[in-house]
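Hey team,

Filing this mostly as a record. A colleague (T.K.) asked me to run one chain through the structure pipeline before their review meeting, and I want the input and output archived in the tracker in case anyone asks later how it was produced. No errors, nothing strange. Just documentation.

Input sequence:
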Amino acid sequence: MTEEDIEKENAAITKAYKELLKVSYTTLSGDDKKLIRKAFDVAIDGHKDQRRKSGEAYIFHPLAVAKIVAQEIGLDGTSIAAALLHDVVEDSPDYKIKDIEKLFGKTIATIVDGLTKISSLSKEKDMNVSLQAENFRKMLLTLNDDVRVIIIKIADRLHNMQTMASMRPDKQEKIASETLYIYAPLAHRIGLYNIKTELEDLGLKYTEPNVYNDLFDKIKESKEEQDKYIEEFSEVIRNSLNKESFDYTIKGRPKSIFSIRKKMLKQGVSFDEVYDKFAVRIIYKSDEVNEKFYAWKIYSVVTDHFRPNPIRLRDWISSPKSTGYEALHITVMGPKGRWVEVQIRSERMNEIAEKGYAAHYKYKQDNEKEDNLESWINKLQEALENPDTNAVDFVEQFKLNLYSQEIFVFTPTGELKSLPKGATSLDFAFNIHTEVGMRTRGAKVNGKLVPLSHELQSGDQVDILTSETAKPNANWLDYATTARARSKIKSALKEDKKRIGEDGKEILRRKLKQLKITLNEASTNELVNYFKLKTSLDLFYRVGIGTIDNTMIKSYAASRSNALMSFIKNKITRKATIKKEDLEKEEVTAKYDSLVFGKEEEKLDYKISNCCNPIPGDEVFGFLTVNEGIKIHKKNCPNALSLQSNYAYRIMQAKWVDSSQQEFLAKIKVTGIDHIGLVSDITSIISDNMHVNMKSLSFESDDGLFSGKINVVVKNNTIIKKLLEKLKKINGIDKVTRV
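Output structure:
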């Protein structure tokens, strides 16, 4: 570079720095400006030898990120300084976290450390786990340190997306997929709607450039017509609003390219058939006392002129979203028979919608009980509690709660709770408290008894019925949709499996003792191999639930005593012979020979994908291809993230069926001589003695003879055989048969 170029660049850097101070949403004090200046000097020094892919000086990147943080998100001086320093420790050998702490104090050092942790992936990571998902999990864990870490990271990602043009196409696609998969939902959840929209549009631009460019051109072409329509619509209501002496502005807001594309795919329509390509926003001036009153007054004015769609009214003023968003949304039939969404917001509400977190704090009252962002972080911490979850699973579960629409339901005492759309009565139980969830026996919605899988609707009043004896079972995972409920149920099931495993270990020890075999590490490993299992816990658990019974253990003992003879025979013949009984022996382990799809666990035709070659037992999902039907991918397949990011509508839940975990319905017919207490004897054997769950029972008595039908749920036929044996021994029972 010539001296003239360097001079020009330095002038541009100075100009960008001055602009940063000028555009800040919060008023910067003298101390703030000194702090930002000091951070700017350290950033200049830390990045002095660096250039970006585009060729410009690297310092332009932290300056741009700081500008997004200051202007678009509206954070304070501390955050602006941290944004300027966000890459210094990672990129410069001259600065360590302790140097940042010495120069700027603990708060900024914590934020910079959090941002550095996110960027540098740990080297010892299990390479089977998706790096993006693992990185995301690490990023969420930094929320313990300071929520500003995530917010600055979102700003960093936004600037990277805005300046990706000079990168290789494969790198562009990877970063764009990750943005759609992780950062856009996070921005949405924190209430940064403008940034979320821009991230989604840029994500589409690099993942599906042809689609993006086509829609971009079409929107440009139709802009003039849209502006004319909005003006026509606004003109009708302007006179009435002026008569009421409102101080307001009316703006047309075009829908983002990403959301138009989403609507086209969801509804199967062309661009021209998407009618609500824009919304009309009415922003009015008001003091906080009259805000709600004015909003409904404007609603009244709009609906005097245009007929509203009654099922499309969204009142987020009475019940704000958990992101803090407040507004009144109505959809009305505008001129030329077109539906138009009208958003009614006060200036305060509009700032919160655009700035999220920062504006929320600006308008926060001292008497407000709990900040929405804080309560969200607390919920998030609960979702992070279960460290055993596979990283991709974790992201999937977490995303369920990030992007979902909300419903508002009431407790029996009238307290309002917000839950993701699609939440069930079981999710509500865990939302109240973990203990309530664990002890749930049933639920009443609006006074009526409903199943645990009942999907809740906004406005429902939910009462959870609990019992000391109730506990989670594997079916609960089909009823729960929220990350919190699912992680708690999984933990409880693991504990239950361990408890049954401990009982099974004792049973196995006693049975082996009778066969003159000691249960130790060697014999345990032999048994695990013999029954083709994975771990000793699988073995003990199956003994505990009766899948591995006496006969099978005796077969193992017999094979053990024959092992030496087989070894000698093999030595003599020097041929690796395959034992017929080994081939014919049925696997006790999970019957991983069939895949089931969706919550209904349907069996469908599928093909195994070549990119990751999943085998029975792997965690998988189905992907609906255009020409080849359903293809099965591992959840940590290298293509999983891009498929999830770009084609979420084609993803199907899938799992290998594990026979030991599955429960089956069995029908039993009982006949005999009737006497008082007979039904009680039968039910106590089934429920108390055998701990088997009854689905239904019916008994009839005729001239001293009785017959009964009982439907029970069992894990395997060993349990049903034992149950039939015990029922036969009851006094008065003549015949017990399985139908």
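Quick notes for T.K.: The two ends are 88 Å apart (CA to CA). Residues 121-129, 574-591 have pLDDT under 50 and may be disordered.
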